[in-house]
Write a structure and sequence with these properties.
By secondary structure, the chain is an alpha/beta fold. It is built from 14 helices and ten strands. InterPro entries: Bact_Chemotaxis_MeTrfase (IPR050903), CheR_C (IPR022642), CheR_MeTrfase (IPR000780), SAM-dependent_MTases_sf (IPR029063).
Length: 290
């Protein structure tokens, strides 16, 4: 930023933070705010702007929609990796997916990866399913993966990842089996890409999810929202789940104090179950009794 003093810097930061929140519902944590200037450097260059002050001045004129979109994209955190939190994916492989296989009598498995970023989570799920395909052969499997970032969804849809990307969490056996060389990069096989429907969508104005999902993942997403917005997202997830659904959040996230749509799952550590009307009535009685 220019040497306009702390007040000028704080003013610019407030403008950019407000833009991000109005477009995505996300708030900028202190850790992300201090990296703001670095994240926006390509935007400044591409739009011929000298500094952050020049950027915010143009934003205030509200006449450049493409600039607003570029700023929001730059400020979004698209951090992701394959099989992120290996303990959770072990539980999926050994407990949750076998449970869903046993209980879904209609042989339909519907999965929603909400806030999928650049797609590694969805591809990790697809790899797990394909590696155990003898179990799922004959099933109808749908994986919906949504994110507010158009740039992230574009990469996810392409299935193209750098050498550094695939080295983060992807076993060499899965890399060789399910990815193909693509120049200096790697591309997910057609079998994997066909399993997943990647869509750009906003959790506060959703258009893509339809019906109910058996497995819902919304990991490391809620932590960017205010408590009120977290409740809104959990209500949305509850609306698209059923009594047998399993919800998985990030390691530092919880449904406690975030509404009454989900409760801790009785079988899967760290997982959540849709709260039924009977359970909700019981909880209400316990609260009144307390």
């Amino acid at each position: 930023m220019t040497m306009g003093g702390a007040d000028t810097q704080q003013g610019a930061s407030r403008i950019l933070t407000a833009l991000l929140e109005s477009r995505t519902g996300q708030t900028l944590s202190e850790g992300r705010a201090w990296r703001m200037e670095t994240a926006l450097r390509p935007v400044l260059r591409d739009h011929g702007l000298a500094d952050i002050d020049a950027l915010t001045a143009r934003l205030l004129r509200k006449a450049d929609v493409m600039l607003e979109k570029a700023v929001v994209e730059a400020l979004l955190n698209n951090e992701s990796s394959f099989f992120r939190d290996l303990q959770l994916f072990d539980m999926l492989q050994t407990q949750i997916l076998p449970h869903l296989h046993e209980t879904r009598a209609n042989r339909v498995l519907r999965i929603w990866s909400a806030g999928c970023s650049t797609g590694q989570e969805a591809y990790s799920l697809a790899i797990q399913l394909r590696n155990g395909w003898s179990r799922w052969n004959g099933w109808q499997i749908e994986i919906l993966a949504t994110d507010i970032s158009g740039r992230a969804i574009e990469q996810a849809t392409s299935g193209i990842y750098s050498q550094m990307d695939v080295q983060r969490g992807l076993a060499i056996g899965d890399l060789v089996k399910w990815f193909e060389p693509h120049g200096d990069d790697w591309r997910a096989s057609p079998e994997l890409r066909r399993m997943i429907s990647f869509r750009q969508d906003n959790l506060f104005d959703p258009r893509e999810p339809t019906g109910e999902y058996d497995l819902l993942l919304c990991r490391n997403v809620l932590l960017y929202f205010t408590p009120e917005r977290r409740k809104t997202v959990l209500t949305l997830l509850g609306r698209h789940s059923h009594s047998g659904s399993v919800l998985l959040l990030g390691a530092g996230e919880t449904v406690i104090g975030q509404g009454d749509d989900f409760i801790a799952h009785g079988d899967f550590r760290g997982g959540y179950a849709r709260q039924t009307a009977v359970t909700a009535q019981h909880v209400a009685r316990m609260r009144r009794a307390g």
